[in-house]
Structures are given as C-alpha cells and as structure tokens.
Amino acid sequence: MGRPADPARRERTLARATDHVLAHGLAALNLRPLAAALGTSPRMLLYDFGSKQELVAAVLAEARRRGAARLAGCPPRATGTPAQRLRGIWAWLSAPERAPFVRLFFEVHADLLAHPEHDPDRARAVTDWFDTLGAVFRDVTEGQDDTATPTLLMAVLRGLLLDLTLTGDRERADRALERFAALLGA
After folding, report:
1. Considering 13, 34, 62, which residue would you say is the last residue of a domain?
2. What are the residues whose beta carbons fall under 8 Å from the beta carbon of 20, sequence distance 6 or more?
3. Cys bridge to 150: 29, 133, 181, 186, which one at CB 3.0-4.6 A?
4. What is the dihedral of CA 7, 97, 64, 128, to 10 degrees?
5. 172 lies in some domain
6. Which domain holds residue 106?
7. C-alpha distances in angstroms, 172 versus 85, 165, 167?
C-alpha cells in the first residue's frame, strides 16, 4: 500500500509553485527545475498533483483565486461613482506589483489560444470575475443575470492591461481608461 496523501504538503507546494510561476512564467516550466526550486523532487510533484498538466491547472486556479481575492479587497468596492470605482480598479490592476499576475494572465491566454485542450473550462478565465465585477458595479448592471456589463468591463481592462504590458505607455493607457470611465459615468 502506498504512502497516504498529505494535503497540507500539497497546499504548501501549490503555494510555492504558484509563487514560482508568477515570478518566472509558464513558458519554460519543466518539472525537474521547478522541483529543484521548490526543494522537492519531480516524483513528489507528480505524486501530489498526478501530472504536470494537473499541477499547472492547480497553479493557474490558485493564481486566479489570489487575483480575484485581491480585487474583491480592492478599496473602491461599491462606493463612489462607477467611474471612480473603475479608476480605482485600474490603479490597482495596473500597479507595478501586479505585473507578475498580468504577465501570467496573458501568457495563459496565449497558450489557450494555441492549445484549447489544455483547459476544457477556459471560459472560467472570464466568468470567474463576473460576481466580483457585478457586485462592484451593481448600479450599472442590468440585474443578477447581466453578463454583458462584466464582459465589457473585463474587455476594456484587459485590453488596456495588454497595451500597458506590451508598450509600457502608462500615460496613453491612463488616458484611454479615463475616456472609458467618462462613458461609463454618462
């Protein structure tokens, strides 16, 4: 009979693996170097996660969870105008300390375009944010079942984040956000 699973070890490993991927990305992720960086072995990673794909899926889910939790705690929750809340979320999302999450986010999306089989539930990358954005912008949504408003908000924020990440042109991205905030407030 094999050794029983250790959920606490798996959670610690998942937290550290997520930190590693946020710092170094997914593109060159291999089990042997990852295991060495985490102070474990490839065999233990496979024991805890079953496969590299399952490990990557768990890391991405944890990164999404961390991102959603941080956004939910973002200061402009449901106070101020919709434009003020949007500005607050933009300031939070585009802050330099969020850059690892943003880079990973776009890396994952690029991989999903090339390999949709890697995540059969890839729509979660969008829909995971509906509840958070719906709560923050309740006054501009069209009720509980409104998915168009969170989709539009995410499309604008993601587009501007991609622009900022690729070009580094903060001034132009901020001006574009201001233009959208004005439209949202109208």
Report:
1. 62
2. 34, 37, 38
3. 133
4. 150
5. yes
6. 73-186
7. 20, 12, 10
Domain-located, residue 106: yes
The count of domains in the chain is: 2
pLDDT value, residue 1: 43
| φ/ψ bin of 81: left (φ > 0), alpha (ψ from -120 to 50), beta (otherwise) | beta
CA dihedral 128, 22, 116, 133 (to 10 degrees): 20
User: At which residue do the structure tokens 């604008």 appear?
Assistant: 156
pLDDT averaged over the chain? 85
Could you tell me if 51 and 84 lie in one domain?
no
Separation between Cα atoms, residue 67 and residue 47, nearest integer Å:
27
Q: Which CATH number characterizes residue 28's domain?
A: 1.10.10.60
pLDDT for res 60: 85
How far is residue 151's CA from residue 131's CA, in Å, rounded to a whole number? 11
In a domain, 67, yes or no: no
Q: Could you tell me if 85 and 48 lie in one domain?
A: no
HEC profile for 17-46? Answer: HHHHHHHHCCCCCCHHHHHHHHCCCHHHHH
Please, what is the Cα angle at 20 between 32 and 110, to 5 degrees?
95
pTM of the predicted model over 0.85:
no
